[in-house]
Design a protein that fits this description.
single chain; about 290 residues; 13 helices
Length: about 290
């Protein structure tokens, strides 16, 4: 890859020093023009696909990409543009919305744990178990009135969310020890840019379907969401399972940074095609001789 992006500006491997107020929503363009952007994103896709094929063949490690963001930050389009060039047999994508009754009957990690990617594949979570410490924290009535928890668990709501963050950190560490690397992205859009995108959805008939009445209401909780995101990142960012806080005011920049991050994380996994033992190599040569003799 010709494009060099300093990912240290966005990678959070230790959440303790992280402060969301210092995180940028816009940076200088890393591409020259639209044509340059298209060539770069295509190159990233090719390299990610090559590593995914090695991951599939090796079948010892998997990768989970978690995407979190405020509304209109561009999660869907980022997943589409970054991952569209990867072999679909090696990718599993899941979008998590309002929990079903069956999901409410179980622990808060159940609905995501049951679709974790197996070794050899890339899993994508469009929203995730982090909703349980984000939207549920901003709207605690979801926990106290909708989720079916014991009364003792909801008596101290602050402790409940602190415990959930510990559970998430432990779960991610457990997954990593079992071969599934988890990389998390917070697509950090500004409140001003979100407003522009909401207005565009209202003014453009082909985008009307994307807009929901509740989107504007959630804007009134912006500060609460930023606190929740900061606490979640601070509590769960580790070297093994890092967060990337990616400026999202420019979608092309965002997609290139996400692509660079995915590629960099995959390169650390030492992925390669398995080498056959000598006995199997002999069988291959014998098969080759038979084919050539036909």
């Amino acid at each position: 890859m010709k494009l060099k992006i300093d990912l240290h500006d966005f990678r959070v491997p230790d959440g303790k020093p992280f402060r969301i107020k210092k995180a940028k929503t816009k940076v200088k363009d890393v591409y020259q023009d639209d044509a340059h952007y298209e060539s770069l994103i295509a190159e990233f896709r090719t390299e990610i696909d090559d590593l995914q094929q090695k991951m599939y063949a090796q079948n010892r490690q998997g990768l989970l990409l978690v995407f979190q963001a405020m509304d209109a930050a561009g999660k869907d389009s980022t997943i589409k543009h970054v991952m569209s060039g990867v072999n679909t047999q090696g990718v599993e994508s899941h979008a998590f919305k309002r929990p079903t009754d069956a999901e409410l009957d179980r622990d808060f990690l159940w609905r995501t744990t049951r679709v974790m990617p197996p070794r050899g594949r890339i899993g994508i979570f469009n929203r995730s178990y982090y909703e349980e410490v984000l939207v549920c924290r901003v709207h605690p009535e979801i926990v106290t009135k909708i989720q079916r928890l014991p009364a003792a668990t909801t008596r101290n709501i602050d402790k409940l969310f602190a415990d959930r963050l510990k559970d998430i950190r432990n779960f991610e560490g457990y997954s990593h020890r079992n071969g599934i690397r988890i990389v998390k992205f917070f697509l950090h859009v500004s409140k001003e840019e979100q407003k522009k995108r909401f207005l565009s959805r209202i003014d453009t008939p082909s985008k009307n379907w994307k807009f929901e009445e509740g989107d504007v209401k959630e804007r009134s909780h912006w500060k609460d969401y930023m606190v929740a995101y900061e606490d979640a990142i601070r509590a769960t960012a580790t070297e093994e399972c890092p967060w990337y806080v990616v400026p999202a005011d420019d979608k092309k920049n965002m997609r290139l940074i996400v692509s660079a991050a995915i590629l960099a994380e995959m390169q650390t996994m030492k992925l390669k095609y398995p080498e056959l033992p000598e006995e199997q190599k002999k069988h291959l040569q014998a098969a080759k001789r038979l084919l050539l003799a036909e």
